[in-house]
Each structure stands twice: as C-alpha cells, then as structure tokens.
Amino acid sequence: MGNTRGKPQARASQAMKFLTAAETLDGLLSPITKVLFVAMPSTDVATLLGSRTGDFEITQSKGTADTIALVIRNDFQYVVVDQSKEDVALSLLVPLLAGSEQTFKLIVICQQSEVGKYLRIRGVDRVLGTPIATRQLRSALGIKPKPIAQQAEAPVFAVPPLKASLNIAACLRNRAVAMVSICYKNAAFLLLAVLFLSFCFYGVLIGFFLVSSTWGAPVTLSHGHELVTKIDQQINDMKVNANLISQRTSEAELEAVKAMQAQEDARLLVGYVLGTVEKEIDAKISRRNTLVKTEKRLVKLQAAFEKQLSGSGMSAGLSDLYSKRLIDRKTFNAGTLGLMDAGQKLANLESDRGNVHDEISVFDGNITMLKALRVQLTGAPMESIQAASSDLMLLTKQAVDARSALEQTRAQLKSAKARKTLLAGSKELLESRIAELQSSALGRAMTSRVDVIFVPYGNERNFAEGTPLYTCALTIVFCHRAGTVGINVPGESNSVHPFFGKPIRGYFVEAILNDKQAASQEIIHAERPPFFF
Fold first, then answer.
1. Which of 273, 279, 277, 345 is nearest to 308 (CA)?
2. Which residues lie below 8 Å from residue 54, measured CB to CB, with a gap of 6+?
3. What is the mean pLDDT of the chain?
4. Backbone phi, then psi, for 308, in 5-degree steps?
5. How far is Cα 190 from Cα 230, in angstroms, rounded to an integer?
6. Over the stretch 72-99, which tens digit does the pLDDT of each residue have?
7. Which of 114, 152, 287, 455 is the least crowded, having the fewest Cβ atoms under 10 Å away?
8. What strands, in cross-sheet order, belong to the sheet with 33-38?
C-alpha cells in the first residue's frame, strides 16, 4: 500500500520539477518587449495585460511631442495609440508614426466606426475596435496563450497541500540545476555566435559593398591636389580677364568723356545757328508784313484808278462835255492824254502789285524753311528741308551740320555708355564667379583644410545636401553621427575602391564634419548606419 501511494507522489514531484524548469527556461529565453502606450491610462494597461506585464517594458506618453521624442530616442517593438476618445492631435499623430522610418509595429485602438479609416493608412499593422478583449491586445502584442495540455495536466501532478512543504528544497535544487544548464547553453550559443560572426564578417563586407549605395570615401583636400590646382588656375585666368575688362572700361570712360565734350561743343554750335535762324525769321516776318501793307495800298490805288477810267468816269465826262461844245478840242485832247497817262499808271500799279505779291510768296517760303530749321535745331527729328532763296543756303548748311554733329556726339556718347555698362556687367559677373570659386570647397582648400567625400557613380542619390553622415568603428557597425553632406564639388574625379582595390569614377561632395576623425576612416555612410546601429 505504501509503495502504491508513493508512486503518484514521486511522479507529481518529478512533473513539478520539469514544469518549474520549463517555466524558468521560458522566462530566461523570452526577450523583454518594449511597448509604448499613447493616451492609455495605466489601469487599462494593467487590466488588459494582466499578469503578463512582466514580459514587457512599458512606456506611456500623453502628448504628441512626447510621443515623437520617445519614438526617436528608443527602439520600440510596438506602439499602441488609444484613439477611442477621438482626439484630433492623436489622429494627426497616427499618419506621422505610420510614415516614420522606425521599425516598430503600430497598433491603433479606435471606435468601431473608425476602423476602416485607420485600416487604409499604410504603415498601421493592427486596428482594434472598442471595446477590446484582453486576448485581442495580447494577440496583437504577440503573447502566445499557455498550452491547453499544460493547463489541464497541471492539477493531476500537483503536490497535495499536506506534502508541499516537503518538496520545497527539491524544487529549489532543481531550479538551480536548470539555471546552470541554461547558462551553459547560452554561453555555448554565444561562443558559437562569435565564431560564426568572425567567419562571416568578411562575407558581410563583400555583400555590403556589392549591394549598398550609401557609402563614400572621405578625403581631405589641400593645396597641391589636382582639383585644387585646377581651380587655382581658373581663378587666376578669371583675374587676368577681369583686369583686361577694367582696362577696356577705362577706355570706354575716356571715350564717353570725349563724346560729352564734343556734344557740348555741338550744342553751342546748334545754339548759335538757332539764334541766327530766329533773327532771320523775325526779319523775314517783318519784311513780309511791310510788303503785305504795300500790296494793300496798291490794291486800293488800283481800284481808284479803275473807277476813274471806267464808263462813268473821266473819259465819259470829257466826251459829254465835248459833244455839248462846253470844252474845246484842245481841252478835250489834253483830258484824253491825261486819261492815257492814268491808264499807264494803272498798268504800272498792276505790275508793282504782282512784284510785291511774288516777294511775299518768296518770304513765305523762306519763313517756312527757317521755321523747319528751328524745329529741327530744337531737337525734333530731321526731315526734308524745303527749297529756299540762295541767301539762306549757307545758313541752311550750318544748321544741318550743327544738328548732324550733335546727333553724332549723342550716338558716340550712347555707344560709350553702353560699352561701359556691358563691361561693368562682365566684370561684375567675373568677380562674382571668382568669389564663388574662392568660397567653394576647392577654393578654400588652397589656404586651409577642407574635408570632402568621394561619391562613386550610382551612390549619388543618397548624398544629397543636408543628408546626415555616420562613421563606424568597424567599417559597418558601431556607428555614430559624424556630420552632414554639403554642396557638390563640380567636376569628375577618379579613385580606388576601398575594399576591392579597382579604379572607380565619381565626384566629390563637401563634408561638414563634427567629428574630424571621421575624415581618416576608409568609408563614411550617408542617411543612416548600415545595420541601424
């Protein structure tokens, strides 16, 4: 009977040992999961996770800024955002976290009506609708339930309450043995891992250089480098051209001064001729007015003579008197001779009137021509000049010559100013280009140290201006931030592959380094560390 009762107790004790060792091994091998809960109270977290909170490193945040700062500084496996209260700030935070480059899984808790909206956001791994069950959150966080067989068989092999105190020492001893065994296994695994990594590191480097496009070779430029010498020659050539332009600018300035002096002389000549033309216009107008008055008097005198010589005039009166024998023949003949003399005078008056009219026409033409000269001398465009009398030919020639000289000096001055402006623009462009080259990385390398990065063709998309740079202790691991990428250095360059040793083509970019020691490393990485650490 004693043997029969002892066997179940021995079996229960043995089963307890195995269960205890299995739980210990599971607890030691299970990694701690880092979870960030956003806007979820601690009581809700404890209620949903229950006794499994020991498997997690739980961090909680409330605000958007705190959440972003925590995500940047920590490597979380899960980020749980409680959006059940429909907070607007958190609804904007979800797309930011979904588009982040961090490698966490994003879980959103929301109302049932909002599940579809968050499922459409790329980067959201799971969406849980409220109310959520404990098993849903545990499943989303990767918690596996205990095996059903273990839960069912544990009571069968449980130690009776009366005998539990007798097996405490045995349980502790078995636990210690299990922990020692686990430590031995972990040490062996660690040793094998180190050996494996040592053998595979070379292969990893080969694979890295074959597939990676984020590396570049740092170089320190100084005076004497091929590119620096080339840029120095360009700067010197530009300075020579700038000096030549300065000389031509001085010549253009001298030409402009001469043109201004000639223009002043031409203006004086134009003023002199214009004054002469004004006086001639006044004289011609005065003479024309006199002739007009003379013509009017001649017209009146001619009308009086014509009236006297008409049928009702002196001729008819003489004939009537002679027919009535009131005058004798002698008197009649004397009167007739007087009438003939009056007719001759009338003819002379008509001739004089015609001459006066012709002179008025000549003066009108001269006045019109002189006014045209005055208009042209005062700055109007030169037009065709009307024909005038011969006495004005010299004055006309002087006016045309003066105006032509003024226009010529104006054209010379305009040309000189245009050349001066063009040369000044060319000189300014050269000086700005010289200043640009001197302020560039190659220009500054003539007088001081400048750090640059040789970027092979194919890697250029990762070396944009402002991209962060990282340097690593073992080429590709144990990296830290070293600086940022600067502007591109113009021109192509050749170098040797830092690992394979073959010639490669590429170009340089300036490196703004906080850690100057990074310039002495074989390679430097852009955007991120190769393996994120």
1. 345
2. none
3. 75
4. -70, -35
5. 55
6. 888 888 888 888 777 777 777 888 888 7
7. 152
8. 56-61, 33-38, 78-82, 105-110, 124-129
